[in-house]
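Lab notebook page, bench 4
Experiment: in silico fold of construct C2
Operator: M.H.
Input chain length: 652 residues
Purpose: comparison with the prior construct
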Amino acid sequence: MMFKTLLTGSTALLCCAAFVPAIASAADAASLKVKSVEFTATPAPATEMEKAAPYTTSAAVVTLSDGSKKTFPLSYNALYRSGDYIDNWYAGLIVDKDGKPLTQSAPDAKGNVARGPFRSAGPDGTSLLWVPGAKVDGVKGNPLFLVNHFEYDTEGENIDSAKPPVDLYALLPMTMNLAVLDQDPQTGKLTPAKLSNIDFSAVEGLWIPCNGSTTPWMTHLGSEEYEPDAAVFEKTPLEPMNLYRGTAGKLATGGGANPYRYGHLVEVTVNPDGSTKAVKHYAMGRLAFELGDVMGDRKTVYMGDDGDDVIRALYVADKEDDLSAGTLYAAKWIQEDAAHYGKARLQWIKLGHASDAEIEALIAKGTRFSDIFEVASADAVKAEPAKYQGFKPVYVYSGTGGKTQLEYLKPRSGMEQAAAFLETRRYAAYLGATTEFTKMEGQAHSNADKKLWTVISYVRKGMIDGQNKERPQDDIKLAGDEKDLTCGVVYESVLKGGQKDTAGNAIASDWVATDMAGLVFGERNPADGKQKLDKCDTEKVANPDNIRYSEAMRTLFIGEDSGNHLNNFVWAYNVDSKALARIFSAPIGAENTGLNVFDDYNGHAYITANIQHPGAAEDLAKYGDDIKIDLRRKVDERGWIGYLGGLPAMTR
């Protein structure tokens, strides 16, 4: 069986290599009642064309409630590409607070500046929103709204033409796009009708947005990743956000960008007429947010903290459908088994309670890092321990611009709330939370089973037994071959009510994760592996990142961001049969992003799937010239915003 879709530019070419009985289309039936769903596997790319372009040969084999089966071929559909011009706007265009395109970047560490305008090739988190009562001029079918992050731009032309291109990571403010999509009622095909930037001027701009999720109340919950280290930017201007604000060269104390404005979860509401409102949820803490995932009670949220030496965080809102106030917790890993990526019980340490308004007031009045913490070096404490009583050792990722190192901290009197919500990771470490997690990325859950899935993309450093070095605690001590562990893992957690925090106080949620155990993981590439350039087994997941779950299909979709597979893949993992199938391949040098699944939008289902920085030089640098030069020339380096289509709406 083979249904192959290869894309060149924005054109999909579909061919059927063999006849398959009971082939169906998504238009055949609305909202099928299904018993099970399995996906046929897309082979790993073999030809240059397959390696250089997105493609799928998979199909969904659907067993209906009456026992009959239907097969639905998948196809990858590009909605638009980075830089595309749609309804008077460019996709991924980077602008200032007044909506004007930026003409140059902030300087890098060597003083290099890139020339604009900038159209990001880094599409990331996506929400496809069905808004009741939506009515938009120019849309003939059903209007749907697509919110899409652009995480960063890869490189730009140096203003000095004699110098090489400039690496643009963290040198620019970033953007989210809103696309109005026209949904064909019969086929389900989505076509972009309008495109615009979402206005972030009310929250002083957007910093490195990564993944995102769709809330049960149909808003987009986005993220800001790799928060600026406020200890560094207390004394150094935060120039990328100064570019946005028009305050070049200024510190926060002099009217420049305040680092505490960035590193938050961001909620975007889209109104029926297509207008938007963006807010930052300061009460949910400040981390290197991968995303926040809202549980079935509509108030409990699990967040990914993406970096080395990070925490796992839990937020319980005071009210359903309202994330503006709540209680923040950090996890303690109590290890029970070191093998098979580990197994542990979780305890939860309460960090504090706050509202967005309370934390925003702390930022607005100019709270600085030095107002929150006293800091001492390890050498100073060792030399004069009596002088530093009350200081505790922490070793955590400190944010963009900072350095991960052993330091001793002590919150200043009355600054505990500021510490909990503006320096969340440091304060969690101070209170004894586990800080050895590495690259904690996607989160997904099942409402029906009350299970949570969490990605650790790369298991390394402090997570491995014997690798703790100067870290002050050693909660996670995983055993195994490091060449296997570095391929990453998806953990499963059981969610329960009636739980208490470490102080003995009740946690006001019935969706508290009580454990973590390895479920889906990669392994080193065997000696006889067909893809010799892959360090991790081509036939297993490597370095998972984005994950989403379909209740109707009972399938966990897993997207890769791997330096251990030449081509990154999207996988479908059936939680009942445990079957794992590759269903999509991205071009070389690209990451699979924007993964989300929508079981029923007006009789059709969609798996959103973006492609970030295809052909990126940095990602291909370790390969030979046949890959990093010759094959790279055949890759269209614009980002892709699109979806896997061909699926009908499904229910249980």
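Observations: Residues 79-284 form one domain. The first helix runs from residue 48 to 52.
Next step: discuss at group meeting.
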